[in-house]
Design goal:
Layout (H helix, E strand, L loop, with lengths): L1 H44 L6 H26 L7 H15 L4 H24 L5 H19 L12 H8 L1 E2 L2 E2 H19 L1 H11 L1 H6 L4 H27 L10 H11 L11 H21 L5 H26 L1
Antiparallel strand pairs: 1-2
Length: about 325
């Protein structure tokens, strides 16, 4: 009798384990698979799609949102959100342009310090003030955008980069690959190592997985939350500074909607909005996927630019639904 029960239960257990494995793989690597499929479709649909110049352009345009999305991944892994990154991206560019008067050091340090401090302030409100991340960073989005307008005379002044060396960092590269792309990839590598090989990285996953359990384990939950908002601010500042070098100026109106693009890329890359699960490799695939979609729409030429927003929105909605279904299938 016992043997018969064991024989009947074992196939059910095996099927459940197989289902959980498939759901986990799809959730983690779905964006990469979709990216490969789109690259194949683009190669057969557009003769110039796989040319070096077009692929290099895709990588360059992806580098700025990728740096922002790296910081966003850290925040979302804890179950938080940062809506202020688009405004800090613009502020970082403006401050880099003003700071370039003191050389390349000023162009880098000034946006890092200011954006890092903004991230610190928001992190304190979330971690120690127990305020909702959505409300805190939404207020940050508005306040920082107002600060950008204030330092640029209502947006009418576009400060220029005064240091040729810093402009070269934004516009030059090696073997046809811009330095901005290299900086973004280094950020992904360092972030991946930090999340997978350090105690702080494991604490980020733990806090996002279950904050109450993390407290019982003795983890510094407030400190972990504070740190991810600082990282997000620094990443937005770096991306904005590099964009200023790339465009030779600190344009005050850039970055509008960048926070939504970053969140989309992170979620499409397999990071759960509730936190606790995700990877920067998935975020990289998500950013590239959105950039390839935009590039393919541009290749068509006759489509309105608003089509990109519609496609991205629909794609994100589909991904969120799929993530929800996969998450439930893993809990069954």
């Amino acid at each position: 009798m016992t043997v018969a029960i064991e024989q009947s239960v074992k196939p059910a257990v095996d099927n459940r384990a197989r289902r959980e494995l498939i759901a986990s793989v799809l959730q983690s690597y779905g964006a990469a698979v979709a990216l490969v499929v789109l690259l194949v479709v683009g190669a057969f649909s557009f003769p110039t799609f796989l040319t070096f110049s077009n692929l290099s352009n895709i990588l360059t345009q992806s580098s700025f949102p990728l740096i922002v999305a790296v910081g966003m991944t850290f925040v979302i892994l804890t179950g938080g959100i940062d809506l202020s990154v688009g405004s800090m991206f613009a502020l970082g560019g403006v401050l880099a342009a003003y700071g370039s008067s003191w050389g390349i050091v000023g162009a880098v340090v000034l946006p890092l310090v200011v954006c890092g401090m903004i991230g610190l302030f928001q992190g304190l409100l979330v971690a120690y003030g127990k305020m909702a991340p959505f409300i805190v960073t939404l207020a940050g989005l508005l306040a920082v955008r107002g600060l950008v307008l204030a330092v640029t005379n209502g947006g009418s002044t576009t400060p220029l980069i005064k240091n040729p060396a810093f402009t070269a960092v934004g516009q030059d590269g090696i073997f046809g690959i811009h330095w901005t792309v290299i900086v973004a990839l280094v950020g992904v590598i360092l972030g991946t190592l930090a999340l997978s090989r350090t105690r702080a990285g494991q604490s980020i996953f733990a806090v996002g997985g279950s904050e109450s359990a993390s407290i019982f384990m003795g983890l510094p939950v407030a400190r972990v939350k504070l740190s991810v908002y600082i990282v997000s601010g620094l990443c937005a500042g770096v991306a904005g500074a590099l964009n200023a070098g790339y465009s030779s100026s600190g344009v005050p109106i850039v970055g509008v909607g960048l926070e939504l693009s970053a969140i989309s890329a992170v979620v499409i890359g397999g990071t759960l909005l509730v936190g606790g699960r995700g990877s920067l490799v998935g975020t990289l695939a998500g950013v590239l996927l959105l950039s390839v979609i935009q590039n393919m729409i541009n290749q068509v030429g006759s489509l309105n630019s608003s089509v990109q927003a519609v496609v991205s929105g629909v794609f994100l909605a589909i991904v969120v639904v799929i993530q929800t279904v996969l998450s439930r299938s893993q809990r069954l």
